């Protein structure tokens, strides 16, 4: 899904952002996940890791598991878990590692969003049903081009597709 060249410093980081879905989803893979679906565009807002711009559209499937618990999936795999309070959601992936050829990188993603299931019950910008941020933090890095502690903050905006 991500378009990049392996030799590019920019793409190494952003390829890893997309890889979080695959790596973390290995234990949560299913053929067809059920839940509420949003098309969410994720774009770089702030990049402390100096890797350039990221701009991808993902299909997020959210399973409201009862109470305040939720899980988020894309491409058939759960990639984060979290909780809801009213029209707000917070979620995180937990740490994972990727061998990048120049060393192992350890990442974590945290997100928060205001959402609605269509309609107008929740306060969100006109034309949107998902509005939030995702922050990728480098926890540790053996790659000389990526510093531990750097963060990339991404804007996440989208529209509700429906339930499946």
Structure description:
It contains one helix and nine strands. The chain has one helix at 9-25; strands spanning 36-47, 55-64, 69-74, 77-85, 88-92, 96-99, 104-115, 130-141, 151-163. It has an eight-stranded antiparallel β-barrel. The relative contact order is 0.22. The model is unreliable at 1-30 (pLDDT under 50).
* Beta strands, count: 9
- The string of secondary-structure elements, in order, is HEEEEEEEEE
Q: Structural class, from secondary structure content?
A: mainly beta
Question: Could you give the order of strands across the largest sheet?
Answer: 1-2-3-4-5-7-8-9
Mean pLDDT, rounded to whole units?
82
Question: What's the helical proportion of residues?
Answer: 10-25%
The number of helical elements comes to 1
Low-confidence residue ranges: 1-30
Largest sheet: 8 strands, antiparallel, barrel
Key descriptive features of the protein:
164 residues; mainly beta; eight-stranded antiparallel β-barrel; 10% helix; disordered N terminus
Compact summary:
With 164 residues, the protein is mainly β. The chain contains one helix and nine strands.
